[in-house]
Amino acid sequence: xxxxxxxxxxxxxxxxxxxxxxxxxxxxxxxxxxxxxxxxxxxxxxxxxxxxxxxxxxxxxxxxxxxxxxxxxxxxxxxxxxxxxxxxxxxxxxxxxxxxxxxxxxxxxxx
Length: 111
Ligand code: SF4
Ligand code: SF4
Prior knowledge:
It is a single chain. 28% of the residues lie in helices and 33% in strands. The protein is α+β, with helices and mostly antiparallel strands. The strands form 2 sheets. Strands 4-1-5 form a 3-stranded antiparallel beta sheet, covered by helices on one side.
């Protein structure tokens, strides 16, 4: 089977944490445990009157790429529940090509 990967287009991540909750339910984790964690680079001024404020979701070692959901033909829980559509899932080659297409503020998770 082709190796799969997650792509995060965090340009559009709102920091809502729906992915964290969906993943926790999928992995049956308790509070304080994460299969994915949304990090925040606190707002700071990068130029006069120009602020930088970044949210970036980061999968942990617990991420199993939602193998069971995918086997059933469903999307990974984090992908399905991101209302900003900033998480994508697919073959590594396709995700690398997609990352190149999107440009900046993109990260890949290759387990
Ligand atoms: S669900 Fe999407 S928009 Fe919300 S924190 Fe996660 S990646 Fe960001
Ligand atoms: S692919 Fe599944 S296990 Fe991995 S971060 Fe997303 S919801 Fe969690």
